[in-house]
Amino acid sequence: MGLEMDENGMNASHAPEFAADRRARLRQARGLYGMLNAAAGERDGDILARLDVLIQAEAPVIQLRAKRMEAGPLIALAKRCAARCRDSGALFFVNDRVDAALAAGADGVHLGQEDLPLEMARRIAPDLLIGVSTHNAAQFRAALASPGRPDYLALGPVFPTATKETPDPVIGVEMLAELSWGQTIPIVAIGGVTPDNAASCFRAGAVMVAVIAGVFQAASPLAAARSIMEASWLNR
Where are the domains of the chain? Predict the structure, then answer.
């Protein structure tokens, strides 16, 4: 599927009418927030094979995380991911890079604490969905209060994780529950989540859990992904 372009050659999927639909779909999303962690030098085909696993598991949101990929290859890969996600009905996010998200026709961008500030990203791309990682109560509350209006907040690490080279301190399920309580914005639990502990995150108030190793280091990644989806249905 090609990108829809308006009469000015702009990506039509970033028009305001599409933005409202994306936000409604995000509000309804539950279960696995699928993560594609692209290693330096990894073949696109291997990354797309993992994407197909997440699509088969019916993950409602999928993010491409390619920290060390240059802009050209990143945009090319993100376009292929975006097309597959559109065909499957999943929302597609690019990590860190607002420019790549716009160029690829992604539904949104996910920002870390050291990335482009939320307010600036919102000015550049008002119709993109924007999620923000937070790692403690102060960051969480600051993001909630931002005029940039995040569409969802990721919170963690809830459990110890080896995915990040320098992980933030573990917050635990108790803080996840404390900060999630009463929130109307979607909360995504991050950090060390596996099929075995995902249910505790859903019970604590997270609507989705972001998982890399817990899915793709499992004996059967598809079974692991489906297990997390099932946990979300059983613990709503």
Answer: 28-234
pLDDT digits (tens, 9 = 90+) for 216-236: 999 999 999 999 999 999 987
Count helices and strands (H / E) in the chain: 10, 8
C-alpha pair distances (Å), 26 with each of 19, 89, 179, 199, 221 = 11, 11, 20, 20, 24
C-alpha atoms less than 13 angstroms from C-alpha of 149 in its C-beta half-sphere: 8
pLDDT at 188: 98
Tens-digit pLDDT profile for residues 10-28: 455 666 678 899 999 999 9
- Residue with tokens 């209060």, as numbered in its chain: 145
β-pair partners for 36 = 64
Query: Which residues, at least 6 apart from 141, have a Cβ–Cβ distance to it below 8 Å?
Result: none
Q: Pick 28-234's CATH classification: 3.40.50.300, 3.20.20.70, 3.30.70.1660, 3.40.50.1100.
A: 3.20.20.70
- CA nearest to 209, candidates 162, 165, 172, 158: 158
Strand intervals (E) in 104-144: 108-111, 129-134
DSSP letter assigned to residue 164: S
In which residue are the tokens 């292929």 written?
80
